[in-house]
Amino acid sequence: MNTPEPVASAESLLRAAPPHLLVATAGRLLADRAGAQGVTLLLADYGLTVLQPVTHLPNTGEPVPAQDGPAGRAFVSQLPVVEVTHDPAGEVVHLPLTVRGDRLGVLSVRMPAGTVDPTAVLRLGDFATALAHEVTTAGRDTDLYLQARRTRRLTLAAEMQWQLLPGRGCAREEYVVGAHLEPAYAIGGDNFDWSTGADHLTLTVTDGMGQGIDASLLTSLAVGAMRNARRAGIGLADQACLADQAVYAQYGGKVYASTLLLHFALDTGTVHAVDAGSPQLYRQRGADIEQVELDAQLPLGMFEETLYQEQTFQVEPGDRLIVVSTGVHGARSADGGLFGERALRQTLSATRSAPPHEAARSVVSGMITHFGSKDLAADAAVVCLDWNGRDPGAAGRARTDR
Question: pTM of the predicted model, to two decimals?
Fold first, then answer.
């Protein structure tokens, strides 16, 4: 008796596809296995204003809004949206394209009328997640998806900074992080970085002095030094010390990088912090907003062999932390008013119910409105973290499994 050949999974076929042919491969798979009539891959641009279709020449088609319309609603809500079209023969399912909390865009699938039920949407959602992982991996080998994200050319400094970033968000049971940068196409010295482990999350926000290439090179050195120390298993204060030495050795105190380093214990909510400069930290607990006051220590690279000290504070389930760079809290309106004095708190209150990604974007949008122009005087970075905490029972079960 002949044993039938096993049917290859969609994930394995996507993995086997050439990097630049992921969209075509996805279209064929969904046509064969789900009866799809068409597939469009939409990627969020760097400014999170539009979703751009991925094509081959010139790498993107006509964009659609990232905040409105069926595709925009799927992107913002991170939930599938079924669009009933004018064509009675079909409807379109818009599915979030996300990798571990990092929102990439939307997969839009045109399906025959009458075939879109909850089970079909769940299966399409699983396919979209698999495709998102492959798009992320393919970015190492092709420029197609990076080019498709652009509404215009990036400056060289911005190109370097976006390549340095880990993503624009990450999520797991204990927390959700969303972040935003502006000016997205000309960013120079602002950066955020994170790394998660079995029992911890390390998060940093860095503001390199200066503008353009000079700021980008300085920030790249500071972030690289902190990553090098972190990956060697060195504690938070010593990560700052070693990065400080690296920056000072290169620049001799002429320029420096302001950095906030945070290390979260996932089981207890204890946060170890080093405030090496100007990024500010706010905590929302219920309806209350307070600035977390930390001992201000010297920025990285200002003086030789600076010693740094850690502080601790506590987060509780339901807390939201927001880190803003100098370009945000120091932005001034035409009449000289600082955004960080009152308008920032108003924006934080207004966005309390929004997910972290949208809250971070809204803070930057509010800051631009306060400043009065999209031509910002300084880079602006916002990182928003919602803390859920860890289920003690889940931690106990994990220890028992080991």
Answer: 0.91
